[in-house]
Amino acid sequence: VQLQASGGGLVQTGGSLRLSCTTSGRTASRYDMGWFRQAPGKDREFIAAINWSGRSINYADSLKGRFTISRDYVKNTVYLRVSTLKPEDTAIYYCAAARDYIGTTGELYDYWGQGTLVTVSS
């Protein structure tokens, strides 16, 4: 399974962004997908995950409300919409794939994309 994250960029405080993670590979659609981020000097942080069918979604409690995860099976893409962006949202955002897991532990995800940088200006 290959993952390609995109959609990052420079955004003003209060703005919104939609990140994309395009998946490829014969069984990619059967994987559960998650989004994480890592800010400079900080540990990787779980944001959200969606299971392969789209019926189960898990959000980090601290980030619930401003982040929305979804997936498009025709485009083989998982999205993360971020609204009301704050400077502290500045980070590299990563997508990841796992089998039967939509939890918060990054080590339990099997595949990772290269990340896309989001910079929020104040």
Structural class: mainly beta
The main pleated sheet reads as: 7 strands, mixed
Number of discrete helical segments: 0
**Quick one: overall form?**
globular
For the record, give the distance between the C-alpha atoms at the N and C termini, rounded to a whole number.
37 Å
Rounded mean pLDDT score: 96
Number of strands: 11
- Helix percent band: under 10%
N-to-C SSE series? EEEEEEEEEEE
Write the layout of secondary structure elements.
Elements: E1 2-6, E2 9-12, E3 17-24, E4 32-38, E5 45-50, E6 57-59, E7 67-72, E8 77-82, E9 91-98, E10 111-112, E11 116-121
Parallel strand pairs: 2-11
Antiparallel strand pairs: 1-3, 3-8, 4-5, 4-9, 5-6, 7-8, 9-10, 9-11
Give a summary of the structure in a few sentences.
This protein has 122 residues and is mostly beta strands. Strands 2, 4, 5, 6, 9, 10 and 11 form a seven-stranded mixed beta sheet that branches.
Account of the protein in words:
- It is built from no helices and eleven strands.
- By secondary structure, the chain is mostly beta strands.
- The chain is globular, with a radius of gyration of 13 Å.
- The strands form two sheets. Strands 2, 4, 5, 6, 9, 10 and 11 form a seven-stranded mixed beta sheet that branches. It has a four-stranded antiparallel beta sheet with strand order 1-3-8-7, with no helix packed on it.
